[in-house]
Design brief:
This protein is an alpha/beta fold. It contains 10 helices and 12 strands.
Length: about 280
Amino acid sequence: MPFKNILLQLSTYPHPSPDNVVSASIAIAKMLGGNLTAAVCQVELPDTSNRLVGFVTDVTSVIAAARRDGAAAAAILKRRLTEAGKNGYPSVTIIDRACLPSHTGSQLMGNGRLSDLIIIPTSDDPAYREIAEDLIFGSGRPVLLLPESVAAEITLKVVVVAWDGSRVAARAISDALPFLKFAQTVRLVEITGEKPLEGASSIAALQQQLVSHDVKAVIDAIEVGDLGAGGALTGYCAEKHADLLVMGAFGHTRIRDFVLGGVTKFIVHHTPLPVLMTH
């Protein structure tokens, strides 16, 4: 499916999304021929002040400062997006959202479900990871994670696809086709030594299936080793100078909490490169 409607989530709190993420998102939308809708999320902190807390800190002043800093950061982000939109392509639409820090993902869920692709900046900050996890598992759409170190002019010379024969891996491959068509090299990789693969013999068939989409791919395998599957996968991406990693996202409910799969959690929390994830 072509990515005609792309949602970009931008934060102003606890720190604003960096300019290179904005530039990379604009470049991706242009490459894919899509229209970009940027949701600029300004922090909305509830006033929880009370007499006891007031002895320790002036909560009202802290909240006011956070809102003021958020508004200033939002103005900078919107100015950058407006400048990009003046070029005419991609088309850039800006929507302002007042978001509670722990509910940003759920507040953007409706926008995400009506998009073809969601782009999310990610970092080591737990607030950013929570947004990513909410939208990956709740939106039903492919999510592109962009680390803060992403190059402003993103390229797709090498794309790595993690394959284990599972349903989510198959879905990720399908969602990633628009990206794979732009790649100079596509590498299909299996991680061995961790768990039985659901379709161990299917990777060659996947390679042939991609040929029907005019995508040529090479097959590789890596041992899980002492770094774990997540570390082995990111290490492989670094060795091959990958520009994008494609993978399915695993997660399940345990009692009342949602628990991420081991590799998914590692990548969401520590990815050094752009990652396209699908659940």
